[in-house]
Structures are given as C-alpha cells and as structure tokens.
Amino acid sequence: QFGAAVSRRSLLEALDGLHRRPGRDHREGGVVTLLRALPEGAVTMLAKSLEEAVARSATVASPLFDALAELAPRGGEDDRLHVNRAVRNRPEWEKVEECWGVLEKSLRDTGARAAAAMKAVSEAPVESAETLAGEVETAARKLDETRMLLATLMSTTTDDTIVWVARERDGSASLNSAPLDVGPTLWEELFAKRRTVVATSATLSAAGSMEYAARRLGLEGPETLQLGSPFDYKNATLLAAFTDIPEPNDRGYAQAVAEAVVELVLASDGRALTLFTSHAALRQVAELARPRLEEAGIVVLAQSTDGSPRQLTEHLANNPRSAIFGTSSFWEGVDVRGEALSMLIIARLPFAVPSDPIYKARSEEYDNPFMDYALPGAILRFRQGFGRLIRDKEDRGVVAVLDRRVWEKQYGSKFIAALPECTRFRGETAAVAARAREWLER
User: Fold this and answer.
1) I want to staple 256 with a disulfide (CB 3.0 to 4.6 A). Which of 118, 245, 275, 426 is the partner?
2) C-alpha closest to that of 340 among 315, 364, 370
C-alpha cells in the first residue's frame, strides 16, 4: 500500500491516455482523438503537437528502462538490485541518470502541451467543453503523477526508503520503492487516532508469539489473544515430510522436487497446488514435471506462464484434474473449498531470498536478523501457505513439505510447532505418495 513502482509499461499506459496509437487489438484513442473531433482551429494544431510529444516521450522512455535492466542481476533466484548509495556511484548509474534527464525533459514538454490543450478545449465553442477539458486534465494528471513518482524514485537516498530495480518480463526493468518500516506510518495515521483497534487474522503469531507481527504493524504494547481452530486437523490433514530429497542448495534438488511433485499429484489425481518461493524454481520444476503429468491427463498450469492467480484458482475449482504451480500470491488469499484442492505441496520453506533488497535492508534493523526477522517471517508465511488446504469443516487433504530442513534443522521444529496438530508421516517419496493416496481414499 505504501510502496511504489514505475515500469516502461506503466509509463506507456499513462502516455496512452494522451494518445494511443492504433494497434491490432485496439483503436486509436486518448486526448488527441478527442481534440481532432472538435471544430478546426488552434485545437487541431495542438492535437498534432501533443501527438508528436507523446511519440517522442514513448521513444526516449525505452533507453531508461533498458539501462535499469543492465543493473538488474541475471539468473539466480532473485532478479532485483537494491539501489543504495554504492549503486548510485557506479558508472552504469550515470547512464541511467543521463537517460532519465532526456526522458524527464520530454515528459515535462508533453505535460505542457497537454495543459495548453486543456485550456483550448475549455474555451472551445462546444456545449460539453467543461467535461471534455476535465477528461484532458485527468489524462494529463496521470502522466504528471507518473513523472513525479519516477523523479522521486530516481532521487531518493533516504535511509527510511528502500529503492530497487527489478527485471520485467519484457526484458526491461522497473524502479520500485517501499518503506523500510511501515509500522510508524500505520501507528501515526491509523492506530494512534483510535481509542480501540482490533487486529485479527489467522496468521498473526510465529512460534507462539505475536511480537513479530506487532512490531511490523507498528502496534505498541498490544494486548494479545490466541484462539483455537474449529477444524479437526488431526483427522483432516496428513502432514508429510521427505527423507530422500536433497537440501535446496544441493545438487539434484530440482529434479528430486519434480519427481516428488509428479508422484504426489498422480496420487491425488490432480486437485493440487504447489507453492514455490521463486519464479525461477517454479519454471524449472514445471518444465520437468509437465510431460508426465500431462501424459496422465492432468492439466499443468504455472503462474504468469499460463494465467493470473485468479484465473488459475478458478480453473482448479472448476477442473479438479489440474496441478497449479504458484509463487508469492498463492501463499495467501486462495480459497478453494472441497475436494478440488486436496493436495498442497510446499516446495521450500518460505525464507526470504538473502539478496532481496527489502529483506537485506530490513534485516539490518535487528541484532539477530535470522532469529528475530527471517525465521518469524518465514513461519508466518508457512502458516499462510498451510492454510490454503483446509477451508471448511468438511475439507480433507495432504500437506507435503518437500524441504527436508523442516525436520533436519533445529529451527525446523518451530515451523511444525506453529501448525495445528495433524496426522504426520515421514518417508521416501514413493512411501509418502502411497500414504497420501491411502489418506485421500479414506
């Protein structure tokens, strides 16, 4: 809510409000077409002038986002780069600033021409002049807000704001920001202005404590209350762990995960959701698992590649013989009730990627970053992911955790302790798949 992002796409969308060129799937549109429809005169010249300015801004936008893309890491689990003072001192950043200088000048010129067009429209001898001028103003304001946001992101060097570059699917990059700590803002703008606030959620505690969530939300010394669940997890959920899958950083991990996913999804005959912590891992496992699953008549759908989270969730609800592969947005908010979702697979414990700009910046606020920040955050995320399975008293299914750290590492017990009491099983992939099939057939 308090973050910001500007990409080439979002900037071009703002420019489209002033003039959108005709394409295969859309007609020409924007303020320029509106100006052309008015009686001839000065407005016609303004339309041509504005069209040229928009085209020029669209052209000079690309070098900026391409220059930002040169900064973003390639490959690996994270394609984001924290734009700190060290990055701003690199020679590559000089190119970014040079491109931004050209683009900013062009955007200001485009805005000035849009303002002239708005004035001309408001004075045009037509009945709806005021309404039309309002449409021009709206489009011009959107572009100006985008320009000012980009200017802020380019110049921000304060310690209380995190700025980073992220690679986009079109090969360019976006510039993003988020507050280092959202708590003070929430406290000042929301909580402190109310006599009583009740913050409620199914996932506020980590390892039995709400301290982490309270600190992140800016709640100062809140009274806390933890209540039980109405669901009978012992009889509804089989929690499975694996003994034959390598650790995430070990050789052969992706292949082992793919084989486990295939066996589990075949055992549940689809009806499956697999949660990943990175798009790179998702794509790799999906590529390995897809042939065997599709050969068995199970539809495999991967987030981003095959649709939006909403589209994939709706597909699973309506077509249970499916396996959905999702990342961050699937760990929360997914509500598929009944047998359509019977197999939930957690590929990896949801620790933040160490190179994540937000994680790196915020973890520096803690004396013990792993125990006080990384671990509680991962446990909360783990509980959110676990919660995708049982959505109703009649639901029943399997939660398979492929990350062996959950039972091998000392901190792994904290993840399990954060869950309600389930029936547990641990074994090699074939044994887990057989037990899952048996569980679901009961």
Assistant:
1) 245
2) 315
Whether residue 239 contacts residue 251, with contact meaning beta carbons closer than 8 Å, is answered with no
pLDDT at 255 over 90: yes
Phi, psi values for residue 248, rounded to 5°: -50, -35
d(CA 153, CA 173): 13
Helices 279-295 & 253-268, crossing angle to 10 degrees?
Answer: 50
Report pLDDT digits (tens) over 383-433: 999 999 988 888 899 999 999 999 999 999 999 998 999 999 999 999 999
Lowest-confidence range among 199-213, 272-286, 346-360? Answer: 199-213
pLDDT in tens, 112-170: 999 988 888 777 777 777 888 888 899 999 999 999 999 999 998 888 899 999 888 77
Under 8 Å between Cβ of 110 and 15: yes
- Cα separation values, 344 from 169, 255, 294, Å: 28, 19, 19
246: burial class by Cβ within 10 Å (0-12, 13-18, 19+)? middle
d(CA 401, CA 407) in angstroms, rounded, equals 10
Q: How many Cα atoms are found within 13 Å in the side-chain-facing hemisphere of 370?
A: 2
Residue whose tokens read 């062009």:
106
Dist. CA 439–CA 238, nearest whole Å: 7
| Residue 352: how many other CB atoms lie within 10 Å | 18
DSSP string of 128-157?
A: THHHHHHHHHHHHHHHHHHHHHHHHHHH--
The Cα–Cα gap between 158 and 375 comes to 27
Instruction: Read off the pLDDT of residues 279-291 as tens digits, 9 standing for 90 and up.
Output: 889 999 999 999 9
Q: DSSP of 208-256, one letter per residue?
A: TB-HHHHHHHT--S--------SS-HHHHEEEEEESSSPPTTSTTHHHH
The pair of structure tokens assigned to 398 is 């399997």
For the entire predicted model, the pTM comes to: 0.78
Distance separating alpha carbons of residues 333 and 425, to the nearest angstrom: 27
* Residue where the block lists tokens 């807000």: 145
